[in-house]
Sequence to fold (1313 residues):
Amino acid sequence: MNEASSTSLLPDFSSSAAQKYRYYRHLKDVLMRYVMALGGISVIIAIVLIAFYLFYVVLPMFKPPHLEQVASYPVPASAAAETLYYAMEEQHEIGLRVAGDGSVVFFNTTDGSLVQRQSLTQETPAQVTAFAAGDPSQRLLATGLDDGSALLAVHEYHVSYPQDVRVIRPWLDWPVGNAPLVIDEAGQPLNLITAQADADQVTVAALTAAKRLLLVNVTEEESFLGDEVATRITRSRIPVAGEVTFLALDVEQRELYVAEQGGLISWYDVSNKAAPALVQRVQAVRPPADITSLSFLSGGISILVGDSEGNITQWFPVRDAQNNYTLERIRGFDSQAAPITAIAPEYFRKGFLATDDAGYLGIYHTTAQRTVALEQISGRRLARLAVAPRANAMLVEDATGTLQFWEIDNEHPEISWSSVWGKVWYESRDKPEHIWQSSSASSDFEPKFSLTPLAYGTLKAAFYAMLFAVPLAIMGAIYTAYFMSAKMRGLVKPTIEIMEALPTVILGFLAGLWFAPFVEQNMPGLFLCLLLLPLSMIIAAYGWSRLPNRVRHKVPEGWEAALLAPVIIATALFAFALSKPIEIALFAGNMPLWLTDELGITYDQRNSLVVGIAMGFAVIPTIFSISEDAVYGVPKHLTTGSLALGATPWQTVVRVVLLTASPGIFSAVMIGMGRAVGETMIVLMATGNTAIMDMNIFEGFRALSANIAVEMPESEVGSTHYRLLFLAGLVLFLATFLFNTIAEVVRQRLRVKYSSL
Amino acid sequence: MNRSSFRNWCNSGEPFVWLNAGAVSLSIIMVVGLILLIMARGLGHFWPSDVAAFDYTDSDGAVVALAGEFIDAESVPRARLAVGDARVPAYLDIIDRTLVRIGNRDYTGFDYRWVLDVAMHNLSYPAQIMVIERYEWGNFYGYLTAIKEDGAALHADPDWALFQRYIAASQQLLGEIRHIEKSLIGAVNYDMERLRLKERKLALDGAPEGSPAHTQIATQRVALQEKYDGYTDRLAGLYEQLNRPSFMARLADGREVELAFAKVVRAYRPNAMSVTDKVAFYFEKLWEFVSGDPREANTEGGIFPAIFGTVMMVMIMAVLVTPFGVVAAVYLREYAKQGPVTRLIRIAVNNLAGVPSVVYGVFGLGFFVYFLGGTIDELFFPESLPAPTFGTPGILWASLTLAILTVPVVIVSTEEGLSRVPRAIREGSLALGATKAETLWRTVLPMTASAMMTGLILAVARAAGEVAPLMLVGVVKLAPSMPLDGNFPFLHLDRKFMHLGFHIYDVGFQSPNVEAARPLVYATAFLLVLIIICLNLTAIKIRNRLREKYRAAEQH
Fold:
């Protein structure tokens, strides 16, 4: 600074420039402190964010559903006539009411105002005596008339967007013409009816006033020339014993369920429309209770039986070992106490809603065996119930003729502890099972979201990998840390580090494309290797110890590993050379086939053995490095003390070194386990990725991590599947975090112990 | 050899020591063996091996003439093959067979064929046989018979040099066509798309129809359209020129077929090549592999886009991860109050290094792509919605995800470096009146530079080899355009990219023709291993030098 004017050798500290400079430096110091703190903390927060974000995505699955009443109004139009049926269209803007006088009223769901009114019976003077809806997704309305005939109509909606505003126009369509279809040729009134229709055929089952149960099928057949369509009508009569109370025909028009008084259900096979056959008669409800409601679950496989004690049970045909089907009670729900008045299955999920005499509404999900919600929404009996196609709204009519319109926020009913981890009896399966099957081509497919087989696969992979890696890595670590010469150690340690850095995609690719076929071709050789390698090492070692000292002293101590390398290579080559002769001599020339034929062990080319070795390869370096550190860190005075007292080096290792280093080795195994659990590419590439639960070493599996990698890109954002994959990620995160934390804590303790020794 | 001495030897525990030594030995043999295996299979692929021609007795007794390269050989117990094959003498228990690449997939149906050695006769290596690499249908093996132009035979039994001149000419034409199609027309299309988005944006902003901006767009569009038409005219001319010549070739079984020069990549006669020719050819192929574009669903050609994508992604990641990792480490070590909280954070950071990479991928997809990307799209790119710009996996998100994945590595490494700086150096600096910031900036951090470097290299090595998270956040099997190109704004962070590791997975496991793809997968794997080994060795070297340096500093 202004040195010229100053007499002192030191610069002037109090000049304004110096002060300013000091201030500037101070400012910089403080600024840096804050920038560092801000940056550091935000990075740490960002890291912690991962866990929170996973939770944030997963949590909505466990959120209870939210129900909200939007409107309540008197039953729209022809209030005098009894309501037979309610339905809604896709957007739940327009509701439909079928009344006892045959009128079909389309109304606005938010205020009950009339949109359109039509009559089912406009072409006929007959009166409505029975009504049923077909599969809800097909919107079929079937009406039984007092002249023994039936009318079939379909409610359709046309959506258009003039000026970007959605306009929905409802109308009625007639799949078999709007003339009544004669069911009872005797002309008796129809008291009960059920019907299904698809593009090719229509089937109606109805009970006449004379207690005759009739089945009528109309099939459209194209003639040979192709342009003329002929209809063929098949009629048959089904004998019934008891007092029929409900009829239900499945959407495929193959099964007919008939509920009778006294809690009985008769199951008829009607796939042959001319000759329906009784398959089984079961006591579905024990008297004194009686069946008060019968409905299909979406997909038409299961039936739901509601009884007068408020129980709802799910039944479907189950195949036994002899290939016979029996109707079985799969599960029951007993959350409600009053007689069930109506059951409304959701359109595309395996859930349903049920109302009862006491004004309670229950929302259930069958696969999850879960009462999703139970709420008393009226003090009176709830008579009629309809759910919107997307299961996000419902209409409920109570005994006073008031219609309530509710919105339902129930995104993930299929998730429960039992459906994710427990055994679930899925539709069309013969027993409760753990299955992961997240998608299928059909829309009413029952998603099978059991994470158990995936977690099992992960653990199976980790188990076999550890079986291979732990002995090799720990033994190697002991030798490297305790016996190996420093020079060789300087070569071995970087090699192991390289091993750790090898991308797992390369290990997986080699395991899948090279090692798996190799193992299949040379299986006896591989097992021979397992047997011969330790043997040959010991023989070679003994041989070496017998050599004259002159030769032995040429190789300094601590190079045993190098000496063994040629022995190992030679033994391996020898074993694989013997592989084929052994295979021919002992295993009829094809060991995998022999395993399957003789021992009944299924063999996959990409199996757990391959994964075990490949993933073992990936975790060896992790375990090796950490245990090597632990062994190497054992204070020297302990080992020298032991040796001085006359213990052999090996005794010192077992009694002193290993004992002291065991926590470190334990933490190494934990960290290795963490790595094996989370490894993705190897399990993805080296197994068949089928989600089976079997400890067989010759079969594959599907691991959590591989499942995420395969299914995540195709998963719809926000869907249950998407959130479940996040849950799988969270499980992996927590598992590895747990393993690593245990390891870390153990290691820190060990460090303290070493420093005190 | 007496018994008690063996027992004594056993009691001394020596066998266990040797077994432990064997474990190390086995591990090292596995690593080295694996690398050698990849190297041999990967590098061997480019060598022009000789093409054999031979007669082969089929399983139905018919004799066919085959020609091809021997790829692999194995001995199989008889039981594994079809039992009762009449061609094999009854005394043979083990059957030798050879995998032959017979090529000509368009004529024979498959590229590769296992042949039994006992059924091969009249093996020869004719000098005239040629191998043609094609843009479609894989290799062609056969004999050249005539060159045609416009369908009329020009040269019967043509000269090889002349044939090569024809190939060179068509290659030149193809190069021009590719330049027009990819660079010029690609740029026009890109500009067109930008104009469309601009127009949409104007509409969204509520600009009235016919505003100056609109007219400007219209004129620009007309200009682009003219340019486009010019290019397509030129292309039509080039294509006509390209498709004029063709040639006739005879297959090993005597069939004569016509092939277009336009489909030929290169032709050579391996049996007539000298060793020098072969070496030159080898390096030409190797160069094509690292610098060329993939062909035939990635099973042929080069992997340049994958190398480029990997490097690009890793570079963006390095730019992101270094400052954040270093700042976090400096904060933890120098500024934060040491205590249970910092210990907890340190454990957490350490543990995050062990969290499975696929979990980071899940996080990246949910948080970066759908949440952050979706928000950015709504705020800044409303004109291209519903087509997402950043709301879809891309290179930026992949880099960010990997940055989060590798930040613990950098933090741990930098912290270790900071802890190694001798106390005396810090205290010396402070005693001379430097502030804490100055001490850090001028003395401590420079001394930690190599530790940071080590951390960064390890992070890069890890990122280069990760595949599982990338599968979720931005990698694709075939990217139509690179994340860096000549179209404004040159760096396209929203684009998807190709990656070496994913390339291995995809070509090895998702490719329809795994057999044909395998050598290339090995070559790709070798390249990736090479990169990662080099990076790791560098990191190890730096770290070792660093330790020496500090040991020296502490002793002074």
Q: What stands out?
A: Chain A has 15 helices and 31 strands.
